[in-house]
């Protein structure tokens, strides 16, 4: 009799957990959909300043998942980088999720071994000089060879979790500028870091430091099929 009671309690716990997971998935989807509509309404004059809607949906769903797990310390902003776009276009956004507005929309570099104008090859290996996609949290600031910089914590195992070891950081660079594009047809490339315009780097770093969410999107099957965060989002939707 006692064993039956224990099994019954265990079954109820499992069912409650599953129900909570399904409810969480539904809440995440509702949250991101509502927020996207708010962004579209409040940025009607600058709709081109927003990321692609599918990308924004994925980024916000992942952000909500990480927020629920307390991986994110500062949930008020999210940074999105879209590596499906060429480097001569503005493909980085910092979004204020409280005021529902675009704080920054600017150029950002990719790693020299990821490609020329397009980032097509990605790596998590030290010394690869390539960009790593996926979800990150921002770390602490420091002054290094590129001046004021921001450390990044890759949170997707096998995809970007060696970011610290590789010294993948956000920093300013003079090769991230319209002038460089005019001369070369593309941005300069980093050793794997998402470098931003020098004149904006301090503002951006101060805005997103200390535990905000960063999502670097790469439209490759190797990333999308193996991303722990994206696969969890997909499995919740199926459930």
Major sheet size, sense and barrel closure: 7 strands, mixed
C-alpha end-to-end distance: 33 Å
Q: Strand-residue fraction?
A: 15-25%
Uncertain stretches: 4-23
What is the ordering of alpha helices and beta strands?
HHEEEEEEEHEHEHH
Helix count equals: 6
Shape from CA axes? globular
Averaged pLDDT:
88
Q: Could you give the order of strands across the largest sheet?
A: 3-2-1-9-4-5-6
What key phrases describe this protein's structure?
seven-stranded mixed β-sheet, 239 residues, 38% helix, globular, 6 helices, 20% strand, alpha+beta, two-stranded parallel sheet, 9 strands
Give your account of this protein's structure.
The protein has 239 residues and is an alpha+beta fold. Helix content is 38%, strand content 20%. It is built from six helices and nine strands, in the order ααβββββββαβαβαα. The strands form two sheets. Strands 3-2-1-9-4-5-6 form a seven-stranded mixed sheet. A two-stranded parallel ribbon has the order 7-8. A hairpin with a 2-residue loop joins strand 4 and strand 5. Helix 1 crosses helix 2. The two termini are 33 Å apart. About 8% of the residues have low confidence.
Write the layout of secondary structure elements.
Layout: H1 2-42, H2 53-68, E1 77-82, E2 92-96, E3 101-106, E4 134-144, E5 147-154, E6 169-170, E7 172-173, H3 178-184, E8 196-197, H4 198-208, E9 213-217, H5 221-224, H6 228-238
Parallel strand pairs: 1-9, 7-8
Antiparallel strand pairs: 1-2, 2-3, 4-5, 4-9, 5-6
Helix pairs in contact: 1-2
